[in-house]
Write a structure and sequence with these properties.
Layout lengths: L23 H31 L1 H5 L2 H29 L7 H34 L7 H25 L22 H37 L3 H36 L6 H11 L2 H12 L2 H24 L6 H15 L1
Length: about 350
Amino acid sequence: MSVASNETIFDDDGDSTSSSLETPFSRSVKFTFLLICQVASVLCSLIIFSSFARLRELQAKQHNHVVICLLICNFLIVTIELPVTLTYLHFDQLVPASNGLCFYWIFTNYFLFTSSLWVMAIASIQRYILIFHAHIMNSHLKHYTPIILPTLFLFIWYVVLIFFYSCEQQFDYTQLWCIGPCFAFQGTMGTIDWILSSFIPVVLTVIFNILLILRVVYQKYRIQHGRTWRTTRKLALQLFSISFLFLSIYLPLIIISLVRIWFDPYFLLLFGVLYMAYSVYLVPLLMPFICLISLPEIVLRMKKLCCCGFNNRVEAIGHRHIPMTVTSRRANQEPRRMNIV
């Protein structure tokens, strides 16, 4: 994706050698880790989607809507983009090796990851407005338009750049994301895309989270521990938990990219090829668990279901007839013998 850039090392003859840096063991570790996390992430996402469809109290709270939109975006990454990456890791090349699959892999990667970043930035902005200027978000149009428009723009943006941009596209099936789209290697266009798709949404997320922290701290000392303060704290903590996951991965990538642009173009290049490029998958894989923790209604419902199931099991065992064994018969007969004697 554009945050990690197209990090490929070339040998003296100009051939890409980044795939040779991988060992069978390192690929196996990455494949196993990502696969296990994928299964757990999908199951957790399905639980949240099912609960959101059934619980009216979740649907009625406006601040949960952008969280669900963010979860849907990351769910698509895990279910339609990550499987191609897992196939690449398993076979050490794209299978089947075709230009069509390369285009699909690149487009889903760039579009979905960038959409996720922008939805996160919009969630930060909307959460700040919802807490301190709720009257602005008084209609569904004002709530959903900022989410839909950037996503629609990014879809058109990457369709044009990946499929119609006038550059010579050459794929390498042994490279991650088939070495990437050709526009990313064009200096000006690649920089513009990086600024629009990565730098701006990450900076917006940082700015509005800092503003929210300052306002929440100020409100704490002004209102103390009233009902308004508890509501503000709850809404802020939900955003902070999700933002922390995003920024812990993307902020270091942005800083490393800036160092490469301004100082050293080969800064941490080997580390980026082997690890940073895959670290972005931690966000969509861990997102469902962070969202689940921040939605107490679902957690409470799961606890009730577990408790009811356990109580029913204990009650069924209590009413079940326990057969007499030889030992138990002797234990019951022993008092009778003593009475007769």
